[in-house]
Amino acid sequence: xxxxxxxxxxxxxxxxxxxxxxxxxxxxxxxxxxxxxxxxxxxxxxxxxxxxxxxxxxxxxxxxxxxxxxxxxxxxxxxxxxxxxxxxxxxxxxxxxxxxxxxxxxxxxxxxxxxxxxxxxxxxxxxxxxxxxxxxxxxxxxxxxxxxxxxxxxxxxxxxxxxxxxxxxxxxxxxxxxxxxxxxxxxxxxxxxxxxxxxxxxxxxxxxxxxxxxxxxxxxxxxxxxxxxxxxxxxxxxxxxxxxxxxxxxxxxxxxxxxxxxxxxxxxxxxxxxxxxxxxxxxxxxxxxxxxxxxxxxxxxxxxxxxxxxxxxxxxxxxxxxxxxxxxxxxxxxxxxxxxxxxxxxxxxxxxxxxxxxxxxxxxxxxxxxxxxxxxxxxxxxxxxxxxxxxxxxxxxxxxx
Length: 401
Prior knowledge:
alpha/beta; disordered N terminus; 15 helices
């Protein structure tokens, strides 16, 4: 019986051959050398996905010096998506656009080989609002449309529109207006920006939309599949986190329903229509977008599959591992893909709110929360970097030694 390159199994030459390539040979058995893939999302409010990967790698190597570690920061379409793409080798492009309050902001998209990753939160996100300031009825996605147009101008033929973390509930009307649509009231005047302004909508003219959208592949990447309106819709579920009170939610839901009655109701209940304040609806109905779970799209774009082929262990994670994690968040997507390839997965997180059996069903062997090292949440967030390195040391001792 022959082994590598025809060398007989059990021979000294064969053992030396495998060992020279980094494999371990014990009593004739060949073990693949350890190689870790760190594919984690950000710890919101503490560490970016890039910083998480750096800290985990440092902790692992403190226990296993020289350990090969591939770092692939991931995102599910929300804030941090462009940063993850740039870390994977995309070029960062910046452009001045209209922010959610109507004032100019600097936003970025990522570009590589004709594919652009556009993060709507860069132009229309909650993080662009001053502390304590919300504009649930008037915040606009106009800047997101400008960002898409800039990506087209840069030569993109595939557009990945990551949606999440928005300050807006305007059904994507602002985005479409920036791309050439007109939304008019009964007097023929432009309706005011924001979801509240849609109450006055009488006619919608989409004939002026940028014709390039007929020639590109636009992917709506989202971690939510809510419809546009109703009790599970954009206003009811996500409006409160954007500053909408009960009365505001009722106004916005009715305005979005009216908006859909004018543009066309066929996409209003489609998965993802309610994403990011309804921008999903505008993209699906008017721009020919197709919906895909954000983490699936981003794993494809970031090159997760070839990185996974080299890995013997995957470390994923995010700030909070909870029930939302199981519904399209980055760690669940990473774990599902790794499990399909038979690669073991562990997770690091700030806090853990899932029992071991649910983690196991999601494909995560074990989780290492920072809260076990530091129970004070404020201290844990402030010291997330060093704590994460300690958690990674524990991962290395448990799974690599």
